[in-house]
Amino acid sequence: MINLVLILSQWFYAKEFVGLIGYAGMAGSVGSLLATVPLTAWISASGWRLPFFVTGILLLASTVMLYAVLIRLPQKREGGAHAHAKVRHEKMLLVLKRILKSRQAWAAFLCHFGLVGTYVGFIGTWAVPYGMHIFGMDRPEASQLVMTGLIGAIIGAPVTGWIASRLGSRKKPYLLIQTLIFLAWTVFFLCGGKPPLFVAVLLMFVIGYGNGASALTFAVVRHSFDVREVGRFPDLPIPAAF
Protein backbone atom coordinates (compact mmCIF):
# COMPACT_ATOMS: atom_id res chain seq x y z
CA MET A 1 0.00 0.00 0.00
CA ILE A 2 2.90 2.35 0.76
CA ASN A 3 4.29 1.94 -2.75
CA LEU A 4 0.87 2.46 -4.31
CA VAL A 5 0.28 5.70 -2.39
CA LEU A 6 3.70 6.99 -3.45
CA ILE A 7 3.12 6.16 -7.13
CA LEU A 8 -0.37 7.66 -7.26
CA SER A 9 0.72 10.79 -5.41
CA GLN A 10 3.54 11.43 -7.89
CA TRP A 11 1.75 10.50 -11.10
CA PHE A 12 -1.64 12.17 -10.56
CA TYR A 13 -3.06 15.48 -9.37
CA ALA A 14 -4.59 15.79 -5.91
CA LYS A 15 -8.19 15.73 -7.22
CA GLU A 16 -7.50 12.57 -9.24
CA PHE A 17 -5.68 10.99 -6.29
CA VAL A 18 -8.84 10.91 -4.14
CA GLY A 19 -10.82 8.84 -6.63
CA LEU A 20 -7.93 6.57 -7.57
CA ILE A 21 -7.08 5.66 -3.99
CA GLY A 22 -10.74 4.74 -3.51
CA TYR A 23 -10.69 2.38 -6.50
CA ALA A 24 -7.43 0.89 -5.24
CA GLY A 25 -9.09 0.18 -1.90
CA MET A 26 -12.04 -1.40 -3.70
CA ALA A 27 -9.71 -3.65 -5.69
CA GLY A 28 -8.09 -4.83 -2.46
CA SER A 29 -11.48 -5.57 -0.92
CA VAL A 30 -12.56 -7.53 -4.02
CA GLY A 31 -9.40 -9.60 -3.66
CA SER A 32 -10.22 -10.26 0.00
CA LEU A 33 -13.76 -11.29 -0.97
CA LEU A 34 -12.52 -13.68 -3.66
CA ALA A 35 -10.17 -15.24 -1.11
CA THR A 36 -13.09 -16.32 1.10
CA VAL A 37 -16.02 -18.40 -0.20
CA PRO A 38 -15.03 -18.47 -3.94
CA LEU A 39 -11.49 -19.67 -3.19
CA THR A 40 -12.77 -22.20 -0.65
CA ALA A 41 -15.26 -23.57 -3.17
CA TRP A 42 -12.55 -23.81 -5.85
CA ILE A 43 -10.18 -25.66 -3.49
CA SER A 44 -12.98 -28.02 -2.44
CA ALA A 45 -13.78 -28.81 -6.08
CA SER A 46 -10.26 -29.23 -7.49
CA GLY A 47 -7.87 -29.52 -4.56
CA TRP A 48 -5.34 -26.92 -3.45
CA ARG A 49 -2.64 -27.42 -6.12
CA LEU A 50 -4.47 -25.94 -9.13
CA PRO A 51 -5.72 -22.78 -7.32
CA PHE A 52 -2.25 -22.12 -5.90
CA PHE A 53 -0.61 -22.71 -9.30
CA VAL A 54 -3.02 -20.36 -11.10
CA THR A 55 -2.59 -17.73 -8.36
CA GLY A 56 1.19 -17.95 -8.74
CA ILE A 57 0.94 -17.51 -12.53
CA LEU A 58 -1.30 -14.44 -12.08
CA LEU A 59 1.12 -12.92 -9.57
CA LEU A 60 4.05 -13.51 -11.92
CA ALA A 61 2.15 -11.91 -14.81
CA SER A 62 1.30 -8.94 -12.59
CA THR A 63 4.98 -8.55 -11.67
CA VAL A 64 6.01 -8.43 -15.33
CA MET A 65 3.27 -5.92 -16.14
CA LEU A 66 4.22 -3.67 -13.22
CA TYR A 67 7.87 -3.74 -14.27
CA ALA A 68 6.89 -2.67 -17.78
CA VAL A 69 4.54 0.10 -16.62
CA LEU A 70 6.55 1.49 -13.70
CA ILE A 71 10.14 1.09 -14.91
CA ARG A 72 10.54 0.40 -18.62
CA LEU A 73 7.99 2.85 -20.02
CA PRO A 74 9.12 5.83 -17.86
CA GLN A 75 12.75 5.16 -18.82
CA LYS A 76 11.88 5.24 -22.52
CA ARG A 77 9.88 8.44 -22.17
CA GLU A 78 12.40 10.33 -20.04
CA GLY A 79 15.56 9.21 -21.86
CA GLY A 80 18.67 7.66 -20.40
CA ALA A 81 20.46 10.76 -19.10
CA HIS A 82 17.41 12.32 -17.52
CA ALA A 83 16.18 9.04 -16.06
CA HIS A 84 19.39 8.64 -14.03
CA ALA A 85 19.62 12.23 -12.87
CA LYS A 86 20.36 12.50 -9.17
CA VAL A 87 17.72 13.98 -6.92
CA ARG A 88 18.62 15.47 -3.58
CA HIS A 89 16.55 14.07 -0.73
CA GLU A 90 16.15 15.43 2.75
CA LYS A 91 17.60 13.25 5.47
CA MET A 92 15.15 10.60 6.62
CA LEU A 93 15.74 11.32 10.30
CA LEU A 94 14.80 14.99 9.90
CA VAL A 95 11.61 14.07 8.05
CA LEU A 96 10.73 11.48 10.68
CA LYS A 97 11.23 13.96 13.54
CA ARG A 98 9.02 16.53 11.83
CA ILE A 99 6.28 13.97 11.20
CA LEU A 100 6.35 12.59 14.75
CA LYS A 101 5.86 16.11 16.09
CA SER A 102 2.87 16.72 13.83
CA ARG A 103 -0.59 16.52 15.38
CA GLN A 104 -1.99 15.89 11.90
CA ALA A 105 0.19 12.79 11.58
CA TRP A 106 -0.95 11.32 14.88
CA ALA A 107 -4.58 12.18 14.13
CA ALA A 108 -4.30 10.20 10.88
CA PHE A 109 -2.62 7.34 12.77
CA LEU A 110 -5.39 7.09 15.37
CA CYS A 111 -8.17 7.54 12.82
CA HIS A 112 -6.75 4.75 10.67
CA PHE A 113 -6.60 2.53 13.73
CA GLY A 114 -10.25 3.27 14.45
CA LEU A 115 -11.38 2.36 10.93
CA VAL A 116 -9.09 -0.50 9.93
CA GLY A 117 -7.69 -1.84 13.19
CA THR A 118 -11.13 -2.60 14.59
CA TYR A 119 -12.21 -4.17 11.28
CA VAL A 120 -9.14 -6.39 11.00
CA GLY A 121 -9.30 -7.33 14.67
CA PHE A 122 -12.97 -8.24 14.72
CA ILE A 123 -14.13 -9.26 11.25
CA GLY A 124 -10.75 -10.64 10.26
CA THR A 125 -10.26 -12.71 13.42
CA TRP A 126 -13.33 -13.05 15.66
CA ALA A 127 -16.35 -12.62 13.41
CA VAL A 128 -16.77 -16.30 12.51
CA PRO A 129 -16.52 -17.57 16.13
CA TYR A 130 -18.75 -14.66 17.16
CA GLY A 131 -21.48 -15.71 14.75
CA MET A 132 -21.18 -19.36 15.77
CA HIS A 133 -21.29 -18.82 19.54
CA ILE A 134 -23.58 -15.80 19.83
CA PHE A 135 -26.12 -16.56 17.10
CA GLY A 136 -25.74 -20.35 16.88
CA MET A 137 -24.66 -20.26 13.23
CA ASP A 138 -22.68 -22.99 11.54
CA ARG A 139 -19.35 -22.04 9.99
CA PRO A 140 -20.62 -21.35 6.43
CA GLU A 141 -23.36 -19.07 7.79
CA ALA A 142 -20.86 -17.23 9.98
CA SER A 143 -18.60 -16.83 6.93
CA GLN A 144 -21.46 -15.10 5.16
CA LEU A 145 -21.52 -12.65 8.06
CA VAL A 146 -17.88 -11.87 7.27
CA MET A 147 -18.76 -11.45 3.59
CA THR A 148 -21.26 -8.76 4.58
CA GLY A 149 -18.37 -6.71 5.95
CA LEU A 150 -16.30 -7.33 2.82
CA ILE A 151 -19.18 -6.17 0.61
CA GLY A 152 -19.38 -3.01 2.70
CA ALA A 153 -15.64 -2.49 2.20
CA ILE A 154 -15.97 -2.92 -1.57
CA ILE A 155 -18.71 -0.27 -1.68
CA GLY A 156 -17.11 2.06 0.85
CA ALA A 157 -13.87 2.81 -1.00
CA PRO A 158 -15.19 4.15 -4.35
CA VAL A 159 -18.37 5.70 -2.94
CA THR A 160 -16.52 7.67 -0.26
CA GLY A 161 -13.89 8.73 -2.78
CA TRP A 162 -16.63 9.93 -5.14
CA ILE A 163 -18.36 11.85 -2.33
CA ALA A 164 -15.09 13.51 -1.33
CA SER A 165 -14.45 14.52 -4.93
CA ARG A 166 -17.95 15.94 -5.31
CA LEU A 167 -17.71 17.91 -2.08
CA GLY A 168 -14.21 19.11 -2.83
CA SER A 169 -13.29 18.15 0.73
CA ARG A 170 -11.48 15.18 2.20
CA LYS A 171 -11.78 15.91 5.90
CA LYS A 172 -15.58 16.38 6.11
CA PRO A 173 -16.53 12.91 4.75
CA TYR A 174 -13.62 11.42 6.70
CA LEU A 175 -14.96 12.84 9.97
CA LEU A 176 -18.45 11.64 9.06
CA ILE A 177 -17.18 8.09 8.50
CA GLN A 178 -15.28 8.16 11.80
CA THR A 179 -18.47 9.22 13.61
CA LEU A 180 -20.50 6.50 11.87
CA ILE A 181 -18.05 3.76 12.87
CA PHE A 182 -17.94 5.03 16.46
CA LEU A 183 -21.75 4.86 16.62
CA ALA A 184 -21.72 1.33 15.16
CA TRP A 185 -19.39 0.06 17.88
CA THR A 186 -21.41 1.95 20.48
CA VAL A 187 -24.51 0.00 19.42
CA PHE A 188 -22.57 -3.24 19.87
CA PHE A 189 -21.56 -2.10 23.36
CA LEU A 190 -25.05 -0.98 24.41
CA CYS A 191 -26.52 -4.29 23.23
CA GLY A 192 -24.10 -6.22 25.41
CA GLY A 193 -22.36 -7.67 22.35
CA LYS A 194 -25.55 -9.42 21.19
CA PRO A 195 -27.75 -7.15 19.06
CA PRO A 196 -30.60 -8.64 17.02
CA LEU A 197 -29.30 -10.60 14.04
CA PHE A 198 -30.58 -8.08 11.49
CA VAL A 199 -28.87 -5.27 13.40
CA ALA A 200 -25.65 -7.31 13.63
CA VAL A 201 -25.63 -7.81 9.85
CA LEU A 202 -26.22 -4.09 9.32
CA LEU A 203 -23.41 -3.23 11.75
CA MET A 204 -21.04 -5.62 9.95
CA PHE A 205 -21.83 -3.85 6.70
CA VAL A 206 -21.26 -0.41 8.26
CA ILE A 207 -17.95 -1.46 9.84
CA GLY A 208 -16.86 -2.93 6.52
CA TYR A 209 -17.87 0.29 4.77
CA GLY A 210 -15.64 2.18 7.18
CA ASN A 211 -12.74 -0.11 6.33
CA GLY A 212 -13.22 0.62 2.64
CA ALA A 213 -13.53 4.33 3.33
CA SER A 214 -10.22 4.19 5.23
CA ALA A 215 -8.50 4.68 1.86
CA LEU A 216 -9.44 8.31 2.37
CA THR A 217 -6.76 8.41 5.10
CA PHE A 218 -4.13 8.58 2.38
CA ALA A 219 -6.02 11.32 0.55
CA VAL A 220 -6.01 13.33 3.77
CA VAL A 221 -2.28 12.67 4.11
CA ARG A 222 -1.72 13.71 0.48
CA HIS A 223 -3.59 16.95 1.17
CA SER A 224 -1.88 17.69 4.49
CA PHE A 225 1.77 16.93 3.72
CA ASP A 226 4.28 17.78 1.04
CA VAL A 227 4.21 15.29 -1.83
CA ARG A 228 7.87 14.41 -1.17
CA GLU A 229 6.95 13.23 2.33
CA VAL A 230 3.90 11.19 1.36
CA GLY A 231 5.99 8.17 0.42
CA ARG A 232 7.60 8.17 3.86
CA PHE A 233 4.61 9.17 5.93
CA PRO A 234 2.33 6.11 5.30
CA ASP A 235 4.70 4.09 7.50
CA LEU A 236 2.98 5.81 10.44
CA PRO A 237 -0.75 5.10 9.83
CA ILE A 238 -0.41 1.70 8.18
CA PRO A 239 0.88 -0.13 11.31
CA ALA A 240 -2.14 1.28 13.14
CA ALA A 241 -4.33 -0.97 11.01
CA PHE A 242 -2.60 -4.11 12.25
TrEMBL record:
Bilayer topology term: Multi-pass membrane protein
Residue stretches spanning the membrane: 20-44, 50-70, 106-130, 142-162, 174-191, 197-221
Predominant place of localization: membrane
Gene3D superfamilies found in the cross-reference section: MFS general substrate transporter like domains
Compartments where located: Cell membrane
Sample GO molecular function, one term: transmembrane transporter activity
Keyword presence, Phosphoprotein: no
CC terms in the record's Gene Ontology section: plasma membrane
Keywords: Cell membrane, Membrane, Transmembrane, Transmembrane helix, Transport
Statement: the UniProt record of this protein carries the keyword ATP-binding: no
InterPro entries assigned to the protein according to its UniProt record, in alphabetical order: MFS, MFS_dom, MFS_Efflux_Transporters, MFS_trans_sf
Residue ranges occupied by any Major facilitator superfamily (MFS) profile domain in the UniProt entry: 105-242
Name listed for the protein in its UniProt record: Major facilitator superfamily (MFS) profile domain-containing protein
